[in-house]
Structures are given as structure tokens and as C-alpha cells.
């Protein structure tokens, strides 16, 4: 049974919690949009988390039902090599604006200025996390075994609820942790994109009938900005 919702209960959240929640929703949207919507709405529906007015819509049974259904679809689609990258391509135009909208919802009903700032932050975080997810999955999919793909997907499944929980319970821990994750995401995006470019260049050489004396590229954790690469 749904707990009685007090429209002013969200005022118990302090500024750090609101900022952290906006950041968590923006970041999570780029990784697992439907899971972020479902968990946030579920927490508000049962009274586990006092939601700001801009996010109360997530507690509607129809929104919960649709987002929960999409969580199940995405859970399985994201663990099938190739289909996960296709899923990312289809959702490229959804996750970033959704991240901006969710982050804006934390402040939007209370302050139009803060709502705009939150939207810019949420969209940027969603874009960063989405780029890291999409490029890393595409790089992983160059390997014929499916276990690394499934493992990466399960890690993402766990990171989203962890981020949302940490943002509300320990916002002063979440905020610097998010900054570290963003830096790692940029590094991972550059690394995987460079690897994918080398793969595409090798494929073009093979189909172009040119000899390919260069050994196949290997995804390595060394700096993606290194100039000493035989494939370049």
C-alpha cells in the first residue's frame, strides 16, 4: 500500500542531498535510464525517499509500470553482445535529454534558475556516462566471448542503485566520488574510441586488398594519448 505523501516532506532534504540527487539521476540516466526512473519512483511511492515536486510524477502507477517493464527488457537486451550496442544507439537520443529533465526536476518546481543549472548538469553527466558506456561496450564486443559483456552489464546494474542510495544517504561522499568517476569516464571513452578507430582502420585495409603487416590492436589500459603506437 502506498504511504501517504506529504507535499512538503521533500523539504527535509538539505542542499547537498538535492545537488547529489540531481547529479546521480543525470549520471544514472546515461547508464540505466529506466532503472533510475523506476527506483526513484518506487522510493517515492512507498515513502522511502521524500521526492521534490518535480519528481512526484515518477510515483504514478502508470510510470512505475512502464519503467519497470522497460527495466526488464533492458536487463536482458544489455547482456547480449551486439544487441547491447544497438540498444545504446537507439537510446542515444533519449538518455541525455532524460538525464537533463530528471536533474531539473529536483529543483525545477522550486527555482527556475536552479532548474536550468541542474538541467545543464544532468545532461552533461548523462552524456559523459553514456559515451563511456557505449564506447566501452563496443570495444568489449570485439571479443568473441560473452562473459566480459555480461560482467560489465552486471556492474552497471549495481552501480545505479548504489549511486542513488549514496547520493541521498551520504551526499558529501557521493559528490567527490562522482568527480572521480567522471574523470575515469572521459579517460575510458578516449581509450575505447581510439581502440575502435584502430579496429575500423584494420578492417578497411583488409577489405581494400592492402597487406596488413601491423599486428591487430589490443585494448590496453595504458594512456590513450601515447604516441608510440605501431597502428597509428
Strand content: under 5%
What is the subunit arrangement here? single chain
Count of helical regions? 7
Helix and strand sequence: HHHHHHH
Helix percent band: 55-70%
The average pLDDT score comes to 84
Which descriptor suits the 3D outline? Answer: globular
How many strands appear in the DSSP assignment?
0
Structural class, by secondary structure, is mainly alpha
Q: End-to-end span in angstroms?
A: 61 Å
Largest sheet, in brief, is:
none
**What's the gyration radius in Å?**
20 Å
Counting structural domains, the number is 1
Report low-confidence residues grouped into runs of 5 or more. Answer: none
SSE diagram, text form:
Blueprint: H1 15-45, H2 61-77, H3 83-90, H4 92-107, H5 112-140, H6 147-169, H7 171-207
Helix pairs in contact: 1-2, 1-4, 1-5, 1-6, 1-7, 3-5, 4-5, 5-7, 6-7
Explain what the structure shows.
This protein is an all-alpha fold. It has one domain. The protein is 69% helix and 0% strand. The chain is built from seven helices and no strands. The chain has helices at residues 15-45, 61-77, 83-90, 92-107, 112-140, 147-169, 171-207. α1 crosses α4 and α4 packs antiparallel against α5 (112-140). The longest helix is centred in the last third of the chain and has 37 residues, at 171-207. It is globular, with a radius of gyration of 20 Å. The model has no long low-confidence stretch (mean pLDDT 84).
Amino acid at each position: 500500500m502506498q504511504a501517504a505523501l506529504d507535499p512538503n516532506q521533500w523539504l527535509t532534504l538539505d542542499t547537498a542531498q538535492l545537488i547529489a540527487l540531481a547529479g546521480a539521476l543525470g549520471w544514472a540516466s546515461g547508464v540505466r535510464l529506466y532503472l533510475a526512473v523506476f527506483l526513484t519512483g518506487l522510493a517515492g511511492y512507498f515513502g522511502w525517499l521524500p521526492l521534490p515536486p518535480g519528481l512526484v510524477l515518477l510515483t504514478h502507477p502508470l510510470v512505475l509500470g512502464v519503467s519497470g517493464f522497460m527495466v526488464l527488457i533492458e536487463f536482458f537486451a544489455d547482456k547480449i553482445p551486439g544487441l547491447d550496442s544497438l540498444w545504446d544507439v537507439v537510446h542515444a537520443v533519449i538518455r541525455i535529454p532524460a538525464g537533463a529533465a530528471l536533474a531539473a526536476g529536483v529543483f525545477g518546481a522550486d527555482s527556475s534558475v536552479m532548474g536550468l543549472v541542474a538541467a545543464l548538469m544532468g545532461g552533461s553527466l548523462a552524456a559523459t556516462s553514456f559515451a563511456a558506456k557505449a564506447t566501452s561496450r563496443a570495444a568489449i564486443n570485439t571479443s568473441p566471448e560473452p562473459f566480459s559483456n555480461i560482467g560489465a552489464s552486471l556492474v552497471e546494474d549495481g552501480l545505479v542503485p548504489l549511486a542513488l542510495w549514496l547520493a541521498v544517504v551520504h551526499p558529501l561522499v557521493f559528490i567527490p566520488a562522482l568527480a572521480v568517476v567522471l574523470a575515469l569516464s572521459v579517460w575510458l571513452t578516449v581509450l575505447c574510441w581510439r581502440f575502435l578507430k584502430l579496429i575500423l582502420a584494420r578492417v578497411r585495409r583488409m577489405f581494400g586488398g592492402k597487406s596488413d603487416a601491423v599486428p591487430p590492436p589490443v585494448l590496453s589500459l595504458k594512456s590513450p594519448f601515447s604516441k608510440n603506437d605501431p597502428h597509428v
